[in-house]
Structure formats: structure tokens, C-alpha cells
């Protein structure tokens, strides 16, 4: 059984680790597809948004461990990958497809 003191200590420990490592807790945001935007799905398939807000993607066979990990993300999670913004949606990871210099 956890006491209030133990819970507080655990929360402070987690916050300290996040601060020291420079990592922040994941944020959550719904993905919104705007007409004309281009994305990449699971670092494999090119995607774009239709006028009605629907996301359409190429369907290529993407078979590797990294692809499977990207498919199994927590829906709603948002993060940065270099200069691109990524979202976890029902079908996996979708990221803006900007060239990072």
C-alpha cells in the first residue's frame, strides 16, 4: 500500500528525471488534415490531405522493426522529429514531410 509521502516522492523523482534528461512528458492532440498538406506515414508511405480533410496515403509494403514500432504508438500522442511534427493516429504515425536543413 502506497502512502501519500511515497506517491509524492515518486512523482518528484519522475519530474526530476524529466528535467535532468531534457525530455518532456508527451503531449496529446488530435491530428487535423488540411487540404494540400503532405505527410509521411510510419516513415514509409507518402500521404496528402484531400479538400474534404481526408488523409490518403500510398500503400507500400513496409516491413521492418521500426515500421512496426511506429504503427503501435499511443493514439493522440504528439512529438517533434527534427523539424517535423508527428502525431499518432489510428493507423500509426503521421509526420509532416519537411526537409530539415
From TrEMBL:
Keywords: Signal. Residues 1-24 form the signal peptide. This is Protease inhibitor. It comes from Aquatica leii.
Amino acid at each position: 500500500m502506497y502512502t501519500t509521502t511515497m506517491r509524492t516522492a515518486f512523482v518528484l523523482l519522475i519530474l526530476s528525471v524529466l528535467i535532468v534528461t531534457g525530455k518532456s512528458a508527451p503531449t496529446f492532440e488530435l491530428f487535423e488534415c488540411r487540404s494540400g498538406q503532405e505527410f509521411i506515414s510510419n516513415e514509409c508511405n507518402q500521404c496528402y490531405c484531400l479538400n474534404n480533410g481526408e488523409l490518403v496515403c500510398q500503400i507500400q509494403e513496409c516491413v521492418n522493426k521500426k515500421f512496426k514500432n511506429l504503427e503501435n504508438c499511443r493514439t493522440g500522442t504528439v512529438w517533434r522529429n527534427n523539424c517535423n511534427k508527428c502525431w499518432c493516429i489510428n493507423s500509426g504515425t503521421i509526420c509532416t514531410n519537411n526537409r530539415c536543413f
